[in-house]
């Protein structure tokens, strides 16, 4: 039986209502973007009526929510096409970018965190501290512009903007710099959590006992230490996936990628209310789904927290 008072259901209800009212409070009249600057007031009124903006806010919200419950997110003001179709067309680029960024974050963050934990207060640990500090502090757009300046403008090795759909190699080259830009900050967070979690586990009695029994170092670290340190790391990875999907807007704008982030930025600039509301709602749903899958993954990794 569904518990409507549970936090997840409350979050879902909030995610369904906040995008609508948040968009309605934004300044500017969308009708002014679809008429000439010197258009007479009656023409502006006709456009507002065509867009459905002449109705009270609560009336528009009730109609929008009813359509959403039926799977209809509305029609874009600017593109004049269903919001869901535009979202699905832009989704593959964002998913490829997020997936590629996650691979980079895991491939860099976990080894850096492990090496830092195995050599505390050493040269590797100091390098890890600098790596994490820079990754957490540097804005994505600044890192992206630096990478473009180095690899595209100076060296001419990778494309600066756009997404190449003619070949797999072209798509890979198009996503490499954006993925590094987006994945670096998440790699820093994963490295920091891996280090702290491993240091805490390695001080536990069962790890010291395994060492005293003469087990090989790889067995102690891989089976006894890292396996028990995974829960906090998986938590950060789950949050990182949500951040990659929701936080790709800046990177997609910098590299001119036709993804969800670029779509929502363009929609905000044009006051395309249905598109903004639909993207925010769908993105929030994706993040909730990732968090749910992360919770389920806990039970697979740690039998102690299963609900048997």
Automatic annotation (TrEMBL):
Residues in ABC transmembrane type-1 domain copies: 91-298
Protein name in UniProt? ABC transporter permease
Is ATP-binding among this UniProt entry's keywords? no
* Pfam short name (any one): BPD_transp_1_N
To which protein family does this belong?
Belongs to the binding-protein-dependent transport system permease family.
Please provide the record's keywords in A-Z order. Cell membrane, Membrane, Transmembrane, Transmembrane helix, Transport
Q: Which InterPro entries does UniProt cross-reference here?
A: BPD_transp_1_N, MetI-like, MetI-like_sf
Lineage summary:
Bacteria, Pseudomonadati, Pseudomonadota, Alphaproteobacteria, Rhodobacterales
Q: Which PROSITE patterns match?
A: ABC_TM1
Q: Which Gene3D superfamilies match?
A: MetI-like
> What PANTHER family does its record include?
DIPEPTIDE TRANSPORT SYSTEM PERMEASE PROTEIN DPPB-RELATED
Where is this protein found? Answer: Cell membrane
Q: Which residues cross the membrane?
A: 95-118, 130-155, 175-194, 233-255, 275-300
SUPFAM superfamilies per record: MetI-like (SSF161098)
What kind of membrane protein is this, topologically?
Answer: Multi-pass membrane protein
Query: Superkingdom of the source?
Result: Bacteria
Main localization of the protein described in the UniProt heading:
membrane
């Amino acid at each position: 039986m569904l518990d409507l008072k549970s936090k997840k259901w409350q979050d879902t209800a909030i995610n369904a209502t906040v995008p609508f009212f948040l968009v309605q409070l934004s300044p500017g009249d969308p009708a002014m973007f679809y008429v000439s600057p010197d258009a007479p007031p009656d023409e502006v009124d006709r456009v507002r009526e065509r867009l459905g903006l002449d109705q009270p806010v609560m009336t528009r919200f009730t109609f929008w929510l009813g359509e959403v419950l039926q799977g209809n997110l509305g029609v874009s003001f600017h593109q004049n096409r269903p919001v869901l179709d535009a979202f699905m067309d832009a989704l593959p680029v964002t998913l490829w970018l997020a997936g590629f960024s996650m691979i980079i974050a895991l491939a860099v963050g976990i080894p850096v965190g492990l090496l830092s934990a195995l050599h505390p207060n050493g040269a590797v640990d100091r390098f890890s501290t600098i790596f994490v500090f820079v990754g957490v502090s540097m804005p994505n757009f600044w890192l992206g512009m630096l990478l473009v300046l180095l690899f595209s403008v100076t060296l001419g090795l990778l494309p600066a903007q756009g997404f190449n759909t003619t070949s797999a190699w072209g798509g890979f080259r198009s996503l490499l710099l954006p993925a590094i830009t987006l994945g670096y900050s998440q790699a820093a967070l994963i490295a920091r959590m891996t280090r702290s979690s491993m240091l805490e586990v390695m001080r536990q009695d069962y790890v010291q006992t395994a060492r005293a029994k003469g087990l090989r170092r790889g067995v102690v670290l891989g089976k006894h230490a890292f396996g028990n340190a995974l829960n906090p790391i998986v938590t950060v990875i789950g949050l990182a996936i949500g951040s990659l999907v929701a936080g790709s807007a800046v990177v997609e704008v910098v590299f001119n990628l036709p993804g969800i982030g670029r779509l929502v930025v363009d929609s905000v600039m044009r006051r395309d209310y249905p598109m903004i509301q639909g993207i925010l709602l769908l993105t929030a749903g994706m993040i909730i789904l990732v968090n749910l899958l992360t919770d389920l993954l806990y039970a697979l990794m740690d039998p102690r927290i299963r609900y048997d």
